[in-house]
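ARCHIVE CARD
CATEGORY: sequence design from structure
SOURCE FIELD: tokenized fold
FIELD CONTENT:
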């Protein structure tokens, strides 16, 4: 019996784990990492990967899972470990293809692997959109970048932003936010 199997309980209901992950429960997330990571690491290490690459791919796979469970229409049609393994396997194959290494996976797992290509593609597209937004925000400059981050990310009121940035009143800050938002949209869509 492996050391990991001695530490973690033998099983935990996948629904409970997904609900815990959705709520940000550290124990559920830790359990997912401890129970699912070893098989992904084994797969990647046996297919021209390093432990750092295995960690990166697994983290990316967990992010795909998190993106899916936060959607109302997601229904897990396999075991959680199988879903994560399939996502990570596809991510690793894509990574190998980008490096010009077209390998047949040395994967001895006899699993019924769900089709997760659409989920991975959606996740990759979403990541590209986030990257575009980060680039647009950086190009926006100050004070616009601060105004928009404070309002949309940190949920600050216009009065709080007014006080922080020294505007004469909240209406002036609101007008500036509108102008900044228009500039951000232009920068985002011009990329």
């Amino acid at each position: 019996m492996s050391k990991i199997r001695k530490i973690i309980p033998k099983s935990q209901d996948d629904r409970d784990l997904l609900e815990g992950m959705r709520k940000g429960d550290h124990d559920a997330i830790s359990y997912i990492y401890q129970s699912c990571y070893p098989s992904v690491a084994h797969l990647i290490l046996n297919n021209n990967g390093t432990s750092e690459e295995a960690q990166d791919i697994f983290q990316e796979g967990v992010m795909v899972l998190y993106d899916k469970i936060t959607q109302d229409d997601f229904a897990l049609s396999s075991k959680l470990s199988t879903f994560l393994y399939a996502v990570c396997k596809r991510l690793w194959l894509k990574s190998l293809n980008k490096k010009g290494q077209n390998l047949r996976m040395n994967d001895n797992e006899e699993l019924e692997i769900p089709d997760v290509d659409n989920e991975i593609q959606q996740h990759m597209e979403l990541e590209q959109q986030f990257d575009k937004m980060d680039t647009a925000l950086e190009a926006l400059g100050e004070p616009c970048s601060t105004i928009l981050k404070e309002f949309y990310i940190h949920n600050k009121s216009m009065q709080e932003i007014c006080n922080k940035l020294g505007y004469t009143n909240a209406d002036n800050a609101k007008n500036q936010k509108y102008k900044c938002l228009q500039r951000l949209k232009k920068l985002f869509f011009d990329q």
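CARD ANNOTATION: Residues 45 and 51 are 7 Å apart (CA to CA). The two ends are 53 Å apart (CA to CA).
SHELF: design records, drawer C
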